[in-house]
Amino acid sequence: MKAIFLIFLSSLIPFFLLSLPPKIQTRIEQLVRDNPRQLSYAEYALLAETVLDRTPCNFLVFGVGRDSRLWVDLNKAGSTYFLEDNPYWLNLIKGQIPDLNAYPVVYNTKRKEWKYLLKKPEVLQLELPEELNKIKWDIIFVDAPAGWDDECPGRMKSIVAAASFAHAQKDVHVFVHDCDRTVEAIYSSEYLKDKNLIKTIGKLRHYHIQ
């Protein structure tokens, strides 16, 4: 009976989650329990599997959070960098992870401007530290800035920045979270292109620009 139950339980869990090391599965489970409105099990697993498959790599993450340590540890032999516009979160997470490669960034946009800005990539150029502009990225994860209402910065600039790196450098995996929302979905399709979309899990889109 126990064996049957375990087989049934396994059928409910995505295959790529089962292929992760048990310690990583446990950490993902803890993150999901502690942060129920963030990434799901399956979303974390898809991104984690890609990082493990390509490590050591150069990994750029838009946004710091309680999962920042996970991304650093998964890419232990590589280089992981973070961009954050919220001073509170930047200071909080850097206080917990003093050696975190995290940089402040300013967006100067409002989500309500998204329609006007959609066809204006020249206005959407994001000013980044020169060090980051020189890096050949392997994986980029867009999970910031905030975009839940019209007064938030919205993810127009972060998606355009990720797309600019990917199209210029090639062989870049780009993940965009919260693609159930209009801005994330439309900007991802516009700049990352649907032909490069290889998987959607929940709210997470996975693009591979070759």
Automatic annotation (TrEMBL):
<keyword id="KW-0472">Membrane</keyword>
<dbReference type="InterPro" id="IPR006514">
    <property type="entry name" value="IRX15/GXM/AGM"/>
</dbReference>
<dbReference type="GO" id="GO:0012505">
    <property type="term" value="C:endomembrane system"/>
</dbReference>
<keyword id="KW-0812">Transmembrane</keyword>
<dbReference type="Pfam" id="PF21729">
    <property type="entry name" value="IRX15_IRX15L_GXM"/>
</dbReference>
<keyword id="KW-1133">Transmembrane helix</keyword>
<dbReference type="InterPro" id="IPR029063">
    <property type="entry name" value="SAM-dependent_MTases_sf"/>
</dbReference>
<dbReference type="GO" id="GO:0045492">
    <property type="term" value="P:xylan biosynthetic process"/>
</dbReference>
<dbReference type="GO" id="GO:0016020">
    <property type="term" value="C:membrane"/>
</dbReference>
<protein>
    <submittedName>
        <fullName>Conserved putative secreted protein</fullName>
    </submittedName>
</protein>
